[in-house]
Amino acid sequence: MKPEKVNSLVIAYLNDVWKKRGSPNTFNPQPGHGALPWVANVQDPNFQAGARAMKHVHNVEPDLIREGCSIPITLTFQDLTGKNVLLLPLGASDDMAHSQNEKNNKRNYVEGVKTLLAYILELEHA
Predict the structure, then answer these.
(1) Which of 1, 7, 48, 71 could join 31 in a cystine, given CB atoms 3.0 to 4.6 angstroms apart?
(2) What is d(CA 122, CA 112) in angstroms, rounded to the nearest whole number?
(3) Dist CA 46 CA 42 (whole Å)
(4) Boundaries of domain holding 97
(5) How many domains does the chain have?
(6) Residues 24, 50: one domain?
(7) Together in a domain, 46 and 107
């Protein structure tokens, strides 16, 4: 769905719920930012190289999840290059991404560097 359509549907729903509440307060929902969905082919050699690098460094099979919605430029990169874009997660669930208290543990940084280097080496076999 297009972000504009989703925004319109969500705002209409919220306004309908608000109206049913009968509150004397005002309510004016506004959309934040939106972007088109980004989906890549995980069978692409680029993704396979990334999966092997993650397995090599972290010694576990990677979970292939859909994430990156806060990075809308990925779709633009994919469209401009005609290549799949790969995002390798290097943080922890408690990193509080995009917050004023965002952090990255030293261990995650070091393991991230190892993962990047392993990925570059794995591209040779892609």
Answers:
(1) 7
(2) 15
(3) 8
(4) 36-125
(5) 2
(6) no
(7) yes
pLDDT on residue 75: 85
Rounded-to-integer distance, Cα 111 and Cα 105, Å = 10
For residue 62, what is the DSSP state? Answer: P
CATH assignment of the domain containing 65 = 1.10.150
Asked whether 81 and 44 are in contact (CB, 8 A), the reply is no
Report the mean per-residue pLDDT for the chain. Answer: 89
What is the pLDDT, as a whole number, of residue 51?
A: 95
Each residue's pLDDT tens digit, 26-77: 999 999 877 787 778 889 999 999 999 999 999 999 988 877 666 778 888 8
Are 60 and 99 members of one domain? yes
| Residue, of 115 and 90, whose pLDDT is higher | 115
Cα separation, 55 vs 93, whole angstroms: 19
- CA end-to-end distance (rounded Å), the chain: 33
Amino acid at 15: N
